[in-house]
Amino acid sequence: MKKPTIIAVLCHKGGVAKTTTAVALADGLAADHPAAKILILDCDEQANVKTLFGIKSNSQERGIASVLIENTHPSQVKISVRPQIDVILSGGRMMRDFEKTFANATDSELILTRLMKPFDADYDYVIIDSPPALSLISANIAMYAEYCLIPCTTDLLAVVGVKNTMFFLENLRNHFQAKNLSPCKVLGVVPTMYDQRRNLDMTILDDLQRMADADLMSGGVVYDPIRVDSKIKTAQIKRKLITEAYPKSKAREDYQKLAQSIHQTVIKVGLTKTSAQRQDSRANFEPEVAV
């Protein structure tokens, strides 16, 4: 059975372009790999993926919340938004019920893995848009995903968000070490909304690079920044992907480069023994949780 590459866009800070990055990454991967099938999994209560694609309300709107809480099969809530791209919406406020229902369940951090595993083999890539809070659903995302990408705007509070995210992943790693399971591998940090004319932006970029050089990113790198570009918001207003609306824009160029870098990194990591062991453990492990 084919194993998809699962990438979570994760950061303990709102307003750092997580949704924009998740959608643009899927867009860039689709453009570079015409045969690839990609799923965008929205796990954020804000449900911004729905807005960006202009998806109208229907029976599929209950999304991943319905999968998690009502044991709905993911195929019943997927929505095709482009020839290569499917979306599973979050379910909006219904996501809150997941936290209430399973907060005290055994291995509740592994529910998403169990429920998505029979379905996600239809895809080459699964890209996950995550909520800003490091909650139970964030723990599920981290344990389900194989890799994570951390967006970070060029400001101090976003850098703190990166550090909190790294601490969160380390806690999960320690918690599941005895079961030979681990959370997603950190690909790196991608600076967003970067303006090289501002001294602060360059200072933050230097700080992030020093963190990487000091091995404070668990082996992750600092990707080339995504430059600030008003065409991102304009494309969103038009309910179009950046490759569709402005194929020659700075944003399209930067996100395409990011997608290519991540694809090459994933290929290299996938050839290592550690990655192979991680994929095998994901395939063979059944969480001890009643859903």
Topology:
Elements: E1 5-9, H1 18-32, E2 38-42, H2 48-52, H3 63-70, E3 78-80, E4 85-88, H4 95-102, H5 111-116, E5 125-129, H6 136-144, E6 147-153, H7 156-176, E7 185-192, H8 199-213, E8 221-222, H9 230-237, H10 242-245, H11 250-270, H12 273-284
Parallel strand pairs: 1-5, 1-6, 2-4, 2-5, 6-7, 7-8
Antiparallel strand pairs: 3-4
Helix pairs in contact: 1-11, 3-4
Cross-sheet strand order for the largest sheet: 3-4-2-5-1-6-7-8
Helical stretch tally: 12
Provide the number of structural domains. Answer: 1
What amount of the residues lies in strands? 5-15%
Describe this structure in words.
With 291 residues, the chain is an alpha/beta fold. The protein has one domain (5-281): P-loop containing nucleotide triphosphate hydrolases (Rossmann fold, 3-Layer(aba) Sandwich), CATH 3.40.50.300. The protein has 12 helices and 8 strands. α1 packs across α11 (250-270) and α3 runs parallel beside α4 (95-102). The longest helix is centred in the middle third of the chain and has 21 residues, at 156-176. Mean pLDDT is 90; it is low at 273-291.
